[in-house]
Amino acid sequence: MPMGAEEIAVSELSDEQAAAELARLAKEIAGHDDRYYREDAPVISDAAYDALRRRNDEIETRFPSLVRADSPSGSVGATPSEKFSKVRHGVPMLSLGNAFDKGDVHEFVQRIRRFLNLGEDVQVDLTAEPKIDGLSISLRYEGGKLVQAATRGDGSEGENVTANVRTIADIPNVVTGDGFPDVFEVRGEIYMSHKDFALLNEKQSQSGGKVFANPRNAAAGSLRQLDAAITASRPLRFFAYSWGEVGELPAQTQWGVLEAFASWGFPVNDLTRLCHSVEDLIAHHGEIEARRASLGYDIDGVVYKVNRLDYQARLGFVSRSPRWAVAHKFPAEKATTVLEDIEIQVGRTGALTPVARLKPVTVGGVVVSNATLHNEDEIERKDIRIGDTVIVQRAGDVIPQVLAVLPELRPADSTAFVFPDVCPACGSHAARDINEKTGKSDVVRRCTGGLICPAQRVERLKHFVSRNAFDIEGLGDKVIQEFYDDGLIQSAADIFTLEERDRSSLKKFKDREGWGETSARNLFAAIDARRRIGLDRFIFALGIRHAGETTARTLARAYGSADGFIEAMQAASDREGEAYGDLDNIDGIGQTVADALVEFFAEPHNVDVVRDLLDQIEIEALEAVDTSSPVSGQTIVFTGSLERMTRDEAKAMAERLGGKVAGSVSKKTDLVVAGPGAGSKLKKATELGVEVIDEDAWFQRVGAD
Ligand code: AMP
Q: pTM here?
């Protein structure tokens, strides 16, 4: 009787037997998953189940071309997905602004004082704690039990990694102590210690597995495993430092909440201090920096947070970072090396940027072989020449830069660098604009080739898929460049037709060099995941000059839909007309931005590109604003002097409540909030019959009294 394939060692299997085995295992494992997860009634032991999965993995490794679409290796538990399922964060997970020196920290605290209108005599307490270099996670507890864990993802939507997080010993599955709200989300950092990282890499290299570049990558790679058993075998650690949705907070201060977290069984970093002044903060920063090398885990700065939570609420957010927190990075590290060449890169708006190619040198633990030289004036000022020995500096995640030249080491035959006046990518003339206001020439030289310049086109695409734009996983700079060169992707819409075109193509994507069935499938899934996108990200992704993230958000709020936005921008090409006036009148949109927007949409090719893209995707209106508030959707003008809040605070508050703040009164204005001393705006409002209220009435209306 022939032997059943299940009894044959993996190394002995023929192609046919392997395929049959994979089919059998897929079915069997899915059956056990169902029994375990859906029916809570497993029929085999955990060890026997693990053995089935292991055999499946081994066969897949030996026969990668036979991996099935329904392979159990692509699923965790009962949710068979190619990737993790998505979790929408009720409260977004954001970034932090940076401070690099004492001056920045002073300015940060001064900004808070100005915003809240606090005098110098009012003490502003802040917490200071290490900024852990790992990956952030949001842990949701209901009735004291861990019910969900999600990664930050793009900030609004992360990945559901609950099964994996349950295996981390530092994270309680059930909280201890009492006084915790029925529902709360603890946020913090998952990281790996230096020691565990070294051990893991050693093990990985012995077994021929993936060797990680640094502890952060190792932590991220270990957490995002489709098989939670692998995560369980990796020594991940955790520190709690903030929160998302919470029923009722256990304290009125940042410090108090951290204390509560500790009492519920969460690890809180014991280098956290409560500071009472900028001097305190700086002193603590110095202490942490001195201990950095012996901590046993990576940190890249110290995070300061306003202690009073009522202040935090009033301060709110600017773009993607809270106004009430900042990351004070450690000072830059320096090294000396030889500058071997100067290359000119062309950016998405045509800017020619000189880049130094360096003899590779280690700066603060990272090998650096490129550094920015900023612009031609900077090269001239520092007299940087090819062949020079230079000092390079690197600070945190900032691009390394060339600080200075060591002239005594300069080769005798060296000559000054001549900046090109033609674009290296398309040969068009490259010119420096003259600033109309100052009459001076701009520091940046730009290619005038516009859309004929391949470098500008490809840079636009790179920007389009970048982290704060469409954020398409697996579609980084290198891949974009490769696809562009091969003619696969020429414009943004092409990204979204990639899979469809692949289906009818003879040269299949999965057969490309460096790609396979799984990676192709993952890329298509990552693209699909972005077919719905927020209007603000969409506008930012277009890469219009001067339209950064904050501007994009302001525009999204003001125009509400992609069509509304595009039509308004086209109508605004008449600079005397109403549409241009409306655009210019939006608080935060200056003339430079307005002109850049109009110019972009006056170019028919740009409009075609945007329209083609819109055929492929769906735009969501801006989220996270309060649509239930009485001022949601209204255009509001603040005028006169306000006494209970500063102008900045008023604006932030109105926007948080879904209102749009305008700089002047027109017939589109819904509400004017006038304080003492209001003049022409109040008069105009009265003439136009616009509703006018005072500051107290404003507080009453929005229910903040
Ligand atoms: P960034 O992504 O550089 O803007 O920095 C924000 C990130 O810093 C957060 O998403 C966290 O992952 C991380 N982080 C590390 N330690 C802390 C901390 N103590 N407080 C707040 N964020 C932290």
A: 0.64
